[in-house]
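Input record (Table S2, row 265):
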Amino acid sequence: MNTITANGIDLSYVDSGAGRPLLLVHGFPVDHSIWASQIPALARQCRVIAPDLRGFGQSGASNGIVTMEMLADDLAAMLEELGITEPVVLCGWSMGGYVAFQFWKRHRARLRGLILCDTRAGADTPETAAARRQTAERVVHEGAAMLVESMLPRLLAPATLGNHPHLAQSLRRVISAGNVRGIAAASRGMAQRADFVSMLPDIDCPTLLIVGSEDVISTPAEMAAMAGAIPGARLVEIAGAGHASPLEQPEEVVATILQFVANLP
Ligand code: MLT
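Output record (D-malate complex):
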């Protein structure tokens, strides 16, 4: 892992391979390791940058609220610090997708293409937002491990839970080791994130959507509606995967990403 200071925070990141820059943005409440099994194959054709977002993994954390805007600005500042001026393909998984929407809105010139993986464009309902704020307080008082039992069955498809217990184990480890300040701040940030549904028709860069066929958090139906609203977007459904499709079916997700990147103008 490397570390760089960007936007006033120390960010840890993997930088591997050469070629078109591919920025892999993890979700909540994990870190860059969600991409670990895919990075070697992706790095054979791309320069892969996989950071730990502010408050996650080995990166520094902030108190209070960390918004999706702030996380997107961290990424742009990191690219600046790394001297990467070539527009990137940004692949955002789940919360990483919420960050991707903000990156598109705020740093469009840095973007060659967008990959939205198991994510949603809509904002939280007031009930969901209230639950997230409550979760933030609970995590601070009880520790990150309290998230494991509620989240694991929603992150992985039943077949993955049954057949690949090591994947559940590694998620359990990563979630439990999470920085409670970082998790709480990002929960509060997600609770107040902007609604991008009405902006989808304005997305003006090549866009690929990926969804696990058994994703119960960002369902295939919801992602199909999103794909229909983004001009020229393509949706790929990954059979046998839940919300964590990159982790559950890495080979298929890697092949899908590489094909998209290779065909970009
Ligand atoms: C994620 O995987 O990043 C989260 O499920 C996103 C969310 O809670 O909305």
